[in-house]
Amino acid sequence: MKTKISIFASGGGSNAQKFFEHFVQNDTAEIVSVFTNNKSAGVISRAEKFNLPIHILNRSYWDTGEIPISILKEEKVDYIVLAGFMLLIPKALISQYSDRIFNIHPALLPKFGGQGMFGNNVHKAVKVAGEEVSGITIHLVNEEYDKGRILYQESCFLDPTDSPEEIGAKVLKLEHKNYPKVVESVIRKST
Ligand code: GAR
Predict the structure, then answer these.
(1) pLDDT at residue 128 above 90?
(2) Per-residue pLDDT, 143
(3) Ligand 1 centroid from CA 4, angstroms
(4) Edge-to-edge strands, sheet with 29-36
(5) Which atom of ligand 1 is nearest to the CA of 105?
(6) Residue 80 pLDDT grade (very low, low, confident, very high; cuts 50, 70, 90)
(7) Is 105 annotated as catalytic?
């Protein structure tokens, strides 16, 4: 039996797309559903092209997590992958899926993490700090923002003239190259 993964995304869904492509024919795992809190998220049309069930649940559903948890149970989901999911994961969901929720952060944690640090805010902060490198952090999710166990990091050099958007583009390339592969290798080791 293949391991079942659900993807949570709030935005454009370019990372989600990489997961759909990577796991479409894969011996280890399959993507079984997508959750979003945003009814106009780009990830919706991407998921439709792969014929994946998509659950659009607005913010109110994420306070207790009761409904998402019951759907995940019904779908027999083993792992959750956060791919640009912008809401806090409810405590009940984290304890149900302890060490089985992955996140990617678009910087080298522990720097540039924590509440409010998402998307372009991160790249702006990296720019303001005059960093010479940035990169990605793939980690497990626990109850504190961006504090779960780090599984993988990769860095890229920045040019002093790079804008936040240019930093973001360099980082996104690393995300696409690594995120599905790292998740697959962690799942393989634990099954
Ligand atoms: C990605 O850069 C991801 O690292 C970031 O949101 C973007 C989503 O892009 N996540 C966070 O900032 C989480 N704190 P995508 O929708 O194109 O995959």
Answers:
(1) yes
(2) 83
(3) 22
(4) 54-56, 29-36, 3-8, 79-82, 101-105, 133-140, 150-157
(5) 4
(6) very high
(7) yes
- For the Cβ of 13 lying below 6 angstroms from any atom of ligand 1, the answer is yes
| Mean of the per-residue pLDDT values of the chain | 96
Nearest residue (by CA) to ligand 1, atom 5, is 84
CA 19 to CA 175: how far, in whole Å? Answer: 11
Is-above-0.90 flag for pTM? yes
Tell me if 83 CB under 6 Å of ligand 1.
yes
* Residue 6 dihedral angles phi and psi, to the nearest 5°: -115, 140
Q: Is 17 exposed, middle or buried (0-12, 13-18, 19+ CB in 10 A)?
A: buried
Q: What are phi and psi of 48, to 5 degrees?
A: -60, -40
**Which ligand 1 atom is nearest residue 117's CA?**
14
- Find the mean pLDDT for residues 9-15: 97
Atom of ligand 1 nearest to the CA of 121: 12
Please tell me if the CB atom of residue 90 comes closer than 6 angstroms to any atom of ligand 1: no
Segment 22-77, tens digit of pLDDT: 999 999 999 999 999 999 999 999 999 999 999 999 999 999 999 999 999 999 99
The secondary structure element, H or E, covering residue 19 is: helix 14-23
